[in-house]
Design brief:
The protein is of the alpha+beta class. It contains seven helices and eight strands; from the N terminus they run H-H-H-H-E-E-E-E-H-E-E-H-E-E-H. The protein has three domains: about 100 residues; about 50 residues, Roll (SH3 type barrels), CATH 2.30.30.60; about 80 residues, 2-Layer Sandwich (Alpha-Beta Plaits), CATH 3.30.70.100.
Length: about 260
């Protein structure tokens, strides 16, 4: 065969080889995209089922983020098959994964905290708990937060992660809790007289108190010509805390004002 004929044959073979390689790469890319679509659908469905019971909005957001990340990984993997530098591909995938995890950091913390609360049985629905400055009855628990209702009927949603980070006091003990009713008086008054008044006021609401408990009066602080006292009570119904405290303070004030008029 002449040199010219050999050259022509090589060109034809190269012309056939190039489209075949390109076709193979495109086929692999197409397969990767189809697989990515299937994985994103399955993973999105699992997220919706898992988080949908907690919060539909959270479930939609998590599904959107996860689906976007899966598609990003799929597209970058496909481009790698077309000749994109794999080091760059893996770098982008790692950065995207880190960004994704940071974006759902609060969600993961709350999920983990819920498992801790549930596993160690810190409290249950119906218990009266105090978390930091919040006090109330637990009415609902889910993967994201714990809902309590205060004695003033305020609804408070506490993230589970905050519960784990803070000190939790479970004040439920056969439905009874110990409370302190503070009162500040002028130091011109006799503490013994005020103590008697507070104990009498407590006796007038004794139907709300635990039958096995005894009210006590303690001095909390003395400053600036004022004395702060605290009436310690054990009440049957924590939901009546505000009512009982209000009744005692109202009755005590009436009697203290009578003493001042003398």
């Amino acid at each position: 065969m002449s040199p010219k004929a050999l050259e022509t044959s090589s060109i034809l073979q190269a012309g056939i080889q190039i489209p075949y390689d390109l076709f193979l790469k495109l086929a692999i890319l197409f397969t990767i995209l189809i697989a990515t679509w299937i994985v994103s659908k399955i993973f999105g469905s699992l997220i919706s089922k898992a988080l949908g019971k907690v919060n539909q909005k959270v479930a939609r957001q998590a599904r959107r983020i996860a689906t976007s990340l899966i598609w990003l990984i799929g597209i970058l993997t496909g481009l790698g098959q077309l000749g994109l530098e794999m080091t760059l591909v893996f770098t982008i995938i790692i950065i995207s994964t880190v960004i994704f995890l940071l974006s759902i950091r609060d969600l993961l913390l709350n999920l983990g905290s819920y498992e801790v609360i549930d596993t160690y049985d810190l409290f249950k629905v119906g218990d009266w708990i105090q978390v930091g400055s919040f006090f109330g009855r637990v009415v609902n628990m889910n993967w994201m937060n714990t809902t309590i209702v205060t004695p003033e009927n305020e609804i408070i949603y506490i993230p589970n992660s905050k519960i784990i980070e803070d000190i939790v006091v479970n004040k439920t003990a056969s439905g009874e809790i110990r409370i302190s009713v503070p009162i500040t008086i002028d130091d011109a008054l006799q503490i013994s007289e005020v103590e008697k008044i507070l104990l009498e006021a407590a006796d007038e609401v004794k139907e709300e108190l635990s039958p096995n408990s005894k009210p006590e009066v303690r001095t909390i602080s003395v400053k600036n010509n004022a004395i702060e006292l605290g009436l310690l009570l054990k009440i049957n119904n924590p939901a009546k805390y505000s009512f009982i405290a209000s009744e005692i303070l109202k009755r005590a004030k009436i009697r203290i004002d009578e003493i001042k008029k003398k």
